Write a sequence for this structure.
């Protein structure tokens, strides 16, 4: 009696082990628990700009982004100007991902014949799941050279008078699949200002966000507030509203804004059009990416 | 005279206990195989564009006793040649935030034809269920089980249709994504240790 009951217990415990290992799916679930690496949040914005200003996104390492940006003239003169299409500011840009955290870019804009170069560095990256990094933080530094002829050629003009510098911190969070918000405090430095009373360092606070309408279309909003005393008189805050349209091969941005310029210095500190007077204009940007360097962990 | 049966009984108990203990240790170790580094590759071939992606972190269990087999992977772990492809794959097609995993669960239908203790390549058929993008579908996979130097390797090649898994492809890119996607599976198993 004793022996058989002992044997029975032993067998029972053995079959228990088998029963446990029987359901492979449960076992697999348990085995993969905790091994899932913490993922960085991806696609906070669709592209490297919210509308005019930089977003937290970089182009990926080894990827070249060719950007064609247009800001047309204001709508005011109606069909005479083909609602502004006759007067366009254009920037052509080549932007490249050096590293997963670092991108650089070079552009030429028709606005005062400006050449700009920038670098954007990811400092913090938002992570998925509990206990992960809640926000992304990047630094943007850009330098601009205005190459248009000096308007007072008779005086002693120096090259340094052509230079402008922008520093921005980009702080963003993707709240969910649809909503991402960003704050972009920044400083734009002018080496030479038009009037003696104008500040050389102009401070601004940008705020922007997106609402994803469908998987391929998002609505973007952006506002750059210039701090009083740190701005030139009669300039306006830059406002923009637009759509990102992801066509598969490229990103198409179409928007309405009051700023004529495309570079940081131009749209943050040189916007003259008043939204209250309806001085708005149409703009668009086409971004086409080319993979120059295949990621290492592919293959 | 009285001592003998007790000894006999004890011997019996000892033998059976050690046998059962042996079963405890040996049985799961021998019959369960596992890998965390299975490779799943897929190819989409069209005249306009070829797309290729690889995931080297698929986990899988194979039960040698009953031929049951499971695979599971994180969709986000697929790597592409182009970063934009990877983003579109996750964001627009697979919706990997909503459906983070893809699974397969099946059973080798001709298990008796495979001799796991003898080297060789054994063609087999696996009947099972595949779950992609939250959609479950019954599928029969022709596979090969290779036994080599005491190791078991499973390989399979099959086709899936994105349309079957509720993955919509907009008209604009229809010519760039194949209707039939070829999938290659390669799993090198190790004995499963708890």
């Amino acid at each position: 009696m004793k022996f058989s009951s002992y044997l029975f217990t032993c067998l029972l415990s053995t079959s228990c082990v088998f029963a446990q290992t029987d359901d492979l799916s449960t076992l697999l679930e348990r085995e993969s628990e905790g091994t899932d690496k913490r993922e960085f949040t991806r696609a906070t914005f669709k592209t490297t700009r919210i509308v005019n200003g930089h977003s937290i996104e970089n182009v990926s390492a080894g990827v070249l982004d060719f950007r064609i940006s247009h800001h047309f003239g204001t709508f005011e003169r109606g069909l005479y100007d083909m609602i502004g299409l006759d007067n366009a500011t254009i920037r052509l840009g080549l932007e490249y991902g050096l590293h997963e955290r670092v991108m650089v870019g070079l552009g030429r804009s028709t606005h005062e014949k400006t050449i700009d170069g920038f670098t954007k560095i990811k400092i913090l990256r938002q992570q998925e799941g509990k206990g992960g990094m809640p926000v992304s933080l990047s630094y943007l530094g850009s330098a601009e050279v205005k190459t248009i002829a000096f308007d007072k050629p008779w005086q002693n003009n120096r090259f340094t008078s052509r230079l402008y510098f922008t520093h921005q911190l980009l702080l963003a969070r993707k709240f969910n699949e649809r909503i991402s918000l960003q704050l972009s405090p920044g400083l734009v430095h002018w080496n030479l200002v038009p009037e003696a009373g104008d500040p050389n360092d102009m401070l601004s606070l940008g705020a922007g966000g997106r609402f994803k309408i469908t998987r391929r279309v998002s609505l973007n909003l952006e506002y750059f507030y210039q701090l009083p005393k740190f701005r030139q008189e009669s300039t306006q805050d830059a406002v923009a509203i637009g759509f990102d349209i992801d066509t598969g091969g490229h990103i198409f941005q179409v928007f309405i804004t009051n700023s004529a310029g495309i570079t940081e210095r131009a749209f943050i500190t040189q916007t003259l059009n008043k939204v209250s007077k309806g001085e708005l204009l149409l703009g668009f940007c086409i971004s086409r990416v080319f993979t120059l360097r295949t990621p290492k962990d592919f293959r | 005279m009285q001592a003998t049966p007790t000894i006999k009984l004890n011997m019996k108990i000892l033998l059976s206990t050690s046998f059962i203990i042996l079963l405890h240790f040996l049985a799961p170790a021998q019959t369960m195989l596992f890998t965390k580094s299975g490779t799943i590759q897929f190819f989409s071939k069209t005249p306009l564009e070829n797309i290729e992606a690889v995931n080297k972190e698929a986990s899988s269990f194979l039960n040698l006793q009953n031929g049951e087999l499971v695979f599971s992977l994180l969709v986000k772990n697929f790597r592409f040649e182009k970063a934009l492809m990877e983003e579109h794959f996750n964001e627009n097609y697979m919706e990997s935030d909503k459906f983070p995993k893809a699974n397969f669960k099946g059973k080798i239908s001709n298990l008796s034809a495979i001799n796991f203790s003898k080297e060789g390549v054994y063609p087999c058929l696996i009947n099972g269920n595949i779950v992609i993008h939250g959609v479950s579908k019954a599928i029969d996979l022709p596979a090969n089980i290779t036994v080599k130097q005491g190791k078991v390797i499973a390989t399979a090649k099959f086709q899936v249709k994105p349309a079957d898994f509720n993955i919509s492809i907009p008209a604009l890119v229809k010519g760039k994504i194949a209707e039939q996607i070829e999938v290659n599976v390669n799993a090198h198993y190790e004995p499963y240790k708890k």
Observations:
- Residues 124 and 172 of chain B are 40 Å apart (CA to CA).
- The first strand of chain B starts at residue 32 and ends at 45.
